[in-house]
Amino acid sequence: MQIIQYPHPTLRHVSKPLQRFDAPLRRIVDEMFELMYAAKGVGLAANQVDLPLRFFLVNLEADPAASDQQRVFINPVISRPKGQKVGEEGCLSLPGLYGDVSRNERITIHAYDLSGNEIREEVDGMLARVIQHETDHLDGVLFIDRLAPSAVPAAREAIDDFEAIHAGRSQRGELPSDEELAKRRAEWESKYC
Length: 193
Ligand code: NI
Fold this sequence. Notes:
This protein has helices spanning 23-38, 125-138, 152-171, 178-192, and strands at 43-45, 55-58, 71-89, 99-112, 118-124.
């Protein structure tokens, strides 16, 4: 398992809700937390490890020692958005790139945790921002799609570089074909969605 980078096609996949969460998926969650900590991230969506499954992880401390801060949000739905706030974001699928994004200041998140317990919380601050960023991932949306107009020119070169690197790897046959990736996603979906 590894974190995929823009413009890998699975980052544009819209994940369908999960119907079940079994022991193999729990192990995948553990592995995803390890990858997230190794990359010093605060959030990671399943499609960032090439899995078309509707869940994401958060640990605002970005620290495995703070395992009490680990959260898993399954089938998240955001509602009751309030206010707008601009803040800088980055993404483990676009390493090194940062830019200002406007998000709702306060939201209500409805989801399920790993034990199947319902989560319904009104959140704000950093957690509200991360939840919006990660839920976007599950809908195939990246923070570069939401950059403030003033942040676009500075990001353009980095985005072009990511695209050129991907095109080069593709041409050299170092990446699975789009058809193979779609087939793999369909297999996961038939099992879990
Ligand atoms: Ni991200």
